[in-house]
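Problem: given the chain below (332 residues), write out its structure.
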Amino acid sequence: MSIAHTAVLGAGAWGTALAWLWGKDGGQVSLWGHNVDRVTRMQKTRDNSDYLPGITLPETVSVTSELPDCAAADLIVFVTPSTALREIATRVRKVINNPHAVLLSCTKGIEHASGLRMSQILHEIFPEHRIAVLSGPNLAVEIAQSLPTATVIACDDVDCAASLQGALGSPRFRIYTSRDVVSVELGGALKNVFAIAAGISDGLGLGDNSKAALAIRSLAELVRLGVGMGGNVNAFYGLSGAGDLVLTCYSERSRNHTVGQRLGQGEPLIQITADMKTVAEGIPTTLSAWECARRLNVVTPIIDQIYAVLYQSKKPTAALEELLSRQQKAEL
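Solution.
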């Protein structure tokens, strides 16, 4: 598979980092953003000062707010917020003119109400196109600093996954492949909920012992719900499950950890979200995960408490007390 032109849809930190990564070695990349003023500024400065300051985009990256500029791309990469993916994909469907284009979802989330993964939404809208997903412990700022990173590309078509691996990977951006789209996608989405829980633990000053216990019980819960949603047990112990969970629970650069930490310090959610320029996917994913757990009758005590904090105004201290008061049992 030849990729002469890549379109990255979403000019946040993650989308900008990927456009920089794939454009710095000479690849033709279109970076699309919905905010016309920001796009105009980026066209002049070659810098995304709002989301990834200090990183200069190479001349091979063209920044645009017009979706038709991306219509002929060989690879269309979705890096939008999960809540906007369906809308933007529908708009892309109206202008796309490359029947052989491959679609790559880098969005980590689960759709509210439907419980659909991002690739399932794309399959609904683009039934004739090959669709892959990318997920892993990937902080945008570290990728843009050329720090070593590993990730996973999953696709039902193993040849497509291998082609993307060869075209998009590099010594500093090491790509593994998988056929298990469901597990790779769910691992990347669900870990954001538990990152909020870890942030709350830090905000409350509970120490490393507590957070280590929380992280490993979060992994057990992630696996339990992920399997209930069609994933494979073993796959969740890879980069896009345990790997991403470790990163987001322990990194001060994690947006979801930051949300949790500020909640634990007593700040109201409405103030936290008003201050943030970027989207913390753990907030909408908590609602979706809670809905999925109810529908599948899966026991998810940590998700339940984060849902109560985010959507029922429960105090983080009360949520913690309820978790700690659960009956002690054998570790499985």
